Amino acid sequence: MINIPKGTKDILPKDSYKWQIIRNVANNIADKYNLKEISTPVFESTELFVRSDGDSSDIVNKEMYTFLDKGNRSITLKPEGTAGVVRSYIENGLGNEILPVKLFYITPCYRYEKPQAGRLREHHQFGVEIFGANSLASDIEAILIAYDFYKSFNIEPTVLINFLGCDECKQNYKKILREFVLPNLDNMCEDCHKRYETNPLRLLDCKSTTCQNFLAKAPLISECLCEKCKSKFNDITRMLTSIGIKYQIDPKLVRGLDYYTDLVFEFWDFDENLGKNALGGGGRYDKLVGSIGGKDTPVIGFGIGIERLLTYLENKNIHLKEKEPVDVYVASNTENENYVIKFVKSLRDKGFRVDSDLMSRSIKSQFKYADKINAKFVIVIGDDEINENKISIKNMRSSEQIKIWSNDVVEYLKQNV
Ligand code: HAM
Questions:
Q1: 23 and 61: one domain?
Q2: Is the CB of 125 inside a 6 Å radius of any atom of ligand 1?
Q3: 311 lies in a domain?
Q4: Ligand 1 contact via 376 beta carbon (within 6 Å)
Q5: I need a surface site. Which of 17, 138, 207, 225 has the fewest CB within 10 A?
Q6: Ligand 1 in contact with 298 (CB < 6 A)?
C-alpha cells in the first residue's frame, strides 16, 4: 500500500465541515475589515525565499522543499505565504493605485520539519498582509484582525509582543549581542556559531537549553531601542491595553523568519499543551518589498496555522457545528428511472438538499442508508405512487408517514423541513 507522505494529513470527509467553517470565518473577518483575497502559486522561484540580502532562518535554510524542474529552474514549495504575496504585489503593481492594499489568503505551506505534535510538513495558514501603512492604527488593526478571528471560535489567546526596532536599533543591538555572546561562543551549538556570524538576533531563537542558559542574562532589545522606537512601542502597548487586548511583552521574541522590523507578535495559550507551539504570528516587515525589487513599502501581517487551531479547539473541547443532514432522501422502487431522476432534480431546483439511491438497492437498504445519513425525510416513489400521482413521505424524526399529491410535495417540505 502507498501511504501518505510523512508530516502530511488528509482532510477526511468527516472533518471537512470544520475546514469549511474556518474558511467561512476567515472570509467573514476579511469582509469585516475590507481585506481582499489573493492566491499565489504553491511554488515559486527559490530566489524569492533565498534573497541576496540573505536569510539565516531555519525555515529558509534547512526546511525548504527545493528542486530543479525539467527546465533546470530552482523551484521551492512555499514555506510561508508572505513572500509570494509580496512578489505578486510588486509584479502586478498592486500598490500603484491607492494605498493601503489590504490582502488575505488561505494557503498550504511546506516545511521539511521533523514531524511532531503541531509540526507538519504541509500545513495551512490564514494570512493577512497590509501594504502601505506604517501607523499605530495599522499595527493595531493587524493584531485586531487575528484577535477577532480567534474570538469567533470563543478563544482568546495571549498576544506576545516585542519590538525589534528600526535599522539602526537592530544593528546596534546585533553588535551588543555579539559582544555579550563572544566569551561563551565556544560552548554554544554549531547553529549558534552560524547565527553569530549571519544574524545574531537568531541566537535568541535557539532551542538548545545550553545556549538559552548562556543567553539568559543577555541584554534585551527593549533596553537598546532608540527614543523614537521606544515611544512607538509604548504607544502600541498603551493602545492594546486601552482596547482590552491581553498581551505580554516577550523581550526575546524574534520570530522564525528574518524579514521582520519593529513590531512582532505571536498568539499563544499557555494553559494548553500544544506541544509548545504558537497558534499564529506575524509582525511588521518594512524592508521586504524593497529587498525583492519593489519600491520601499511598509507592510504588516500575520499567519495563523489552521491545523494548530483545529488541534487547539479539540484540546479545549470546543466543537464546531456540524453540517445539517440532507432534507430529503428519495427512495425508489420502480423501473421508471426517468420519473425518479426528474423528481429528484425538481426538488434540488427548488433549493432542497436531496440525496437519492444510486446503487439500485432494495427499499429496506435504502431506508437503512437514509437513516445512516440522518435524512430528515424519506420520500418513497414506487409504481403505485407514479400511477396515482402521489408520493409517500416519512418524517424520520417522528416516524410519521403519509401519502400526499406529488404537486404538494414542495409546499409540504417548505413547511416541515
Ligand atoms: P510563522 O510563524 O512561521 O509565520 O507561521 C505562522 C503560523 O503557521 C504559526 O504560528 C503556526 O500556527 C503555523 N505553522 C507554522 N509552521 C507550521 C508547521 N510546521 N506545522 C503546523 N503549523 C505551522 C509565517 O509564516 C509568516 N509568513 C506570517 C506572517 C505573515 N508574517 C507577516 N505576514
A1: yes
A2: yes
A3: yes
A4: no
A5: 207
A6: no
